[in-house]
Amino acid sequence: xGSIYNGNKNINIDIPExxxxxxDTLNEKGFEAYAVGGCIRDSLLKRQPEDWDITTxxxxxxxxALFRNTVDTGIKHGTVTVLWxxxxxxxxxxRVEGEYEDNRxxxxxxxxxxxxxxxxxxxxxxxxxxxxxxxxxxxxFGGLIDLRYKLIRCVGDPKxxxxxxxxxxxxxxxxxxxxxxxxxxxxxxCISEMSELIVNxxxxxxxxxxxxxxxxxxxxxxxxxYETGISVHxxxxxxxxxxxxQNSIYHKYSVGEHTLAVLENTRGNHYLRWAALxxxxxxxxARIEDQDGRDHYYNHGKTGSExxxxxxxxxxxxxxxxxIVTRLVKFHDYKTEMNxxxxxxxxxxxxxxxxxxxxxxSYADLAAKSRFAIEKSFGYLKYLKETYExxxxxxxPLSMKDLKISGKDLLEMGFSKGETIGRVLNELLDRVLGxxxxxxxxxxLEYVRNHNLWGEQCIxxxxxxx
Length: 466
Description:
By secondary structure, the chain is of the alpha+beta class. The protein has four domains: 17-144, 2-Layer Sandwich (Beta Polymerase, domain 2); 151-230, Hydrophobic Seed Protein (Orthogonal Bundle); 237-394, Orthogonal Bundle (Hypothetical protein af1432), CATH 1.10.3210; 402-465, no CATH class. 50% of the residues lie in helices and 10% in strands. It has 24 helices and 13 strands. The strands form four sheets. A seven-stranded mixed β-sheet has the order 3-4-5-2-1-8-9. Strand 4 and strand 5 (87-93) form a beta hairpin.
């Protein structure tokens, strides 16, 4: 089948066998078929594509007739998922879309027979590239050139693309962060001009894009969310942080610039990156200036934890993320005395499950402070990390579940269910945190018997024993 699209046959892309089979099957029946979008972009960048999408002149009913196992994933919009072996591939009919009344969904979809018209509706030039082995690379909007110059550029008029789907304003920043690309001038201008349209997008979709930005290799690109005016609509606390100074011998940046530096100092862990973004979110509210003009931020961790909880809820995050991130924000600047006993207590207080993340966040936070702060606190952090590793290696008890007795043992001793059992277990934990050698069943049981741990139950116990 001859090509009408003037494809570049000098570029070869390794197409997976299953994808090639699907395209060959469509071609044999007289339909056009190309791998398209992100898989071609990533292949050209020598990155491993996460999935392979196929675009075709065949209509959904014709696609379904050619393959035994299919799923109608988005059939109104022309998308059929073909199940082949252990893999699933989205096959979508060439289409153009009608008006966008809500900056997200088209009022209508019309199937067409021309690949170029289909590519023209896509968001960015680097995603509007198609390929098959017969015709080569079909790139009508200069995506390959933009890949070479590392640019994110809209297909056609940016205003039209962003009006069609306001989420594209965030997607541009996300691709910039993931790929390390710049956003082309006109495209960036239009993001700023149309930033308010993001309010028409569901918070779940906004959250997904923000998460991808933060978890990318360039989390500092979250700056663009502020610079383009998007954050004022979805994360106004970022704007406030960016405009809050830190007049302190411990700092060299504003709260916002410090936050961006901390982000760049952390590895790409979901919880760690969100904690880095929000660790100082309470500082603007907690900020006070002393008589010497120095800023102080008392209890900003607690304040920030409460704010982070609301922010993450508004962004529709899951309970686990909210729990972990808010605890990290609360304790990010927690300090204790430099001895094993107090460090064990710190681990128990902060949480054994997140203490490694707390240490990582502490290092990232310190590295973004002034030289004075680094020289003052680096030795403490080094001792904290080394001591924590020793404690973990020895398997010292750090939580109630590590105690050699349980609530069941206390019930058998005559305690009733309720707060008393929790209080007693907490007291026992405090003892073994001080001295792990006390964490033996007989020692703990004897301690309970010989000390007045019964509280209000003491009278009932004496009555039973009498």
